[in-house]
Amino acid sequence: MSSTKTMATKADGAVDPLRRAVLGIGLAAFGALLAGVASSDLALVKPAAAQVSATAQKIADHFSSVQTMAGEFVQFGPRGQQTGGKFYIQRPGKLRFNYDKPNSTTVVSDGRSVVIENVRLKTADLYPLSRTPLKLLLNDRIDLSAASVESVKEEDDLTTIRLVDRSVFGNAKITMMFDPKSYDLRQWTITDAQGKDTTVMIYNVKQDVQLDPKLFKINTQHLQEFGRHNTR
Predict the structure, then answer these.
(1) Measured between alpha carbons, how far apart are the two ends of the chain, in Å?
(2) Which stretches does DSSP call E strand in the chain?
């Protein structure tokens, strides 16, 4: 895919990992290590509907019931790069990531499209939400009996639910990790078709908060000024 503006990597070290995180393209495997679980341990067995435990189902139901979330995040990229910032989620479909300075990047999903924008570099790339792994995170609910659920794994300190969507740039997966006691989402890892991961860990999270609709409004003026990568 080509873009009317090339995303610079040397001028702003977090831009390329960020773009890959949204699209699920080529990131080093940090998610399992950060969760305290070896990558081989995440080779989970796909559950039959009858085998899904009451705890896992309660977690899925709780996550589906949370309409809004806001808090802080840390993102881990290739070779140990680390970026952070604040995030806002309104399900279904809406998300905003504001990266901490000196990074000048934001990611916005308005429910239909996702824009990765860097004001300093004057770049803005536009993608359909339906073609990114973020749609698995932002769906209205998790149905543990659905074909998109690849596996469920329960441990004392984490319950892991892995979803797969073969229509997203080729067999993308998202692994969500929940606290088995509070049922809260702790982190997610996106795995691309080459098996490489990027992880986002969240903290200081507030649920069911009132969010300004403007947070999820795509800046169309910047799309026009900066140029855009449009894959509609």
Answers:
(1) 12
(2) 68-76, 82-90, 94-99, 105-110, 113-118, 123-128, 149-154, 159-165, 172-178, 185-191, 197-207
Phi, psi for residue 64 in degrees, rounded to 5 = -65, -25
Distance of alpha carbon 71 from alpha carbon 78, whole angstroms: 24
Cα-to-chain-centroid distance, residue 206: 17
- Does position 208 have pLDDT exceeding 70, yes or no? yes
The pLDDT score that the predictor gives to residue 67 is 94
* pLDDT of 88 over the 70 cut: yes
Hey, what are 66's tokens? 């949370």
How far is it, in rounded angstroms, from Cα 57 to Cα 91?
19
Q: Distance (Å, rounded) from C-alpha 72 to C-alpha 44?
A: 29
Is residue 139 within 8 Å of residue 165, measured between CB atoms?
A: no
- Tally of residues, the chain: 232
pLDDT tens track for 139-163: 888 877 777 788 889 899 999 998 8
pTM confidence score? 0.75
> Which residues are bridge partners to 118 per DSSP?
105, 123
| ∠ Cα 218 224 230 (to 5°) | 70
User: How distant, in Å, are the alpha carbons of 18, 24, 190, 191, 217 from that of 194?
Assistant: 17, 10, 11, 8, 32
Which tens digits make up the pLDDT trace of 8-60?
A: 333 344 445 555 555 543 322 222 222 333 333 333 444 444 456 777 888 88
